[in-house]
Amino acid sequence: MKAPPFYEDIKLFQNRMNEITHISYRINSRDEIVFINDEWSQFALTNNAQSISQENVLFRSLWDFISDDKVKYIYKEILRRVNAGRSFKFNLRCDSPEIRRLLEMNITPQKNGEAQFDTRTIWTQLRMPPILFKNDAPPTDNLLIICSWCNKIETGNGIWEEIEEAVRSLRLFELETLPKVSHGMCESCYQTVSLELEKSKTA
């Protein structure tokens, strides 16, 4: 029995994503993105993400791409230590509509106050695409907050859930209009990264 078109397409997509195992970019002392590697461009193309293509990223500030205050604070603290000559490594989720993806990020100091960001794919997992990520879904003024580190979704009262559970909890499939997606940081990831930052102070 032949697999449905979705699974044929996603199998090819997953194979392409598994080939992209090392994405790199570098910022200068003014926090401007001055280099991205070919794998970054391939990642943007594969995910139909024109907003992060080379022409839309190079020589722009890193902070143009981080809107949440907590996430921005954590990154600034990490870069403060990197600028002092220390490397910093952590894991984060970077999902697409059809693929769950766990990445390892390694930030290292470079010459002239630059910092290098290197990511590698640890694992990928196939999933059905959630409706809220479909490009043709109608927007709304409501916000859906996704953790930039673990990709869980805030469902209220400080509770963060995996997207599948969040879809059920928030009854997203029953909504006539879908919420806008924004990014933040859940308390668990904030505490974990903060602890690593504290450890780096005494290293």
Structural class: alpha+beta
Instruction: Assign the CATH architecture.
Output: 2-Layer Sandwich
Question: Which strand order spans the largest sheet, edge to edge or round the barrel?
Answer: 2-1-5-4-3
**What percentage of amino acids are in beta strands?**
25-35%
Shape call: globular
- CATH H-level superfamily: PAS domain
Biggest pleated sheet:
5 strands, antiparallel
H/E topology pattern = HEEHHHEEEEEEHEH
Cα(first) to Cα(last) distance is 58 Å
Which CATH first-tier class would you pick?
Alpha Beta
In the CATH hierarchy, the third-tier topology is known as Beta-Lactamase
Which residues sit in consecutive blocks of at least 5 with pLDDT less than 50? 1-17
* Cα Rg: 18 Å
Helix content: 25-40%
Tally of extended strands? 9
The average pLDDT is 83
Summarize the structure.
With 203 residues, the chain is α+β, with helices and mostly antiparallel strands. It has one domain (5-129, 140-202): 2-Layer Sandwich (Beta-Lactamase).
Describe what this molecule looks like in 3D.
The chain is an alpha+beta fold and 203 residues long. The protein has a single domain (5-129, 140-202), classed as 2-Layer Sandwich (Beta-Lactamase), CATH 3.30.450.20. The protein contains 6 helices and 9 strands, in the order H-E-E-H-H-H-E-E-E-E-E-E-H-E-H. It has helices at residues 5-19, 38-46, 54-57, 69-83, 163-170, 187-202, and strands at residues 22-27, 33-36, 88-93, 99-109, 115-126, 143-147, 153-156, 159-161, 180-184. Strands 2-1-5-4-3 form a 5-stranded antiparallel sheet. A two-stranded parallel sheet has the order 6-9. It has a two-stranded antiparallel sheet with strand order 7-8. A hairpin with a 5-residue loop joins strand 4 (99-109) and strand 5 (115-126). The chain is globular.
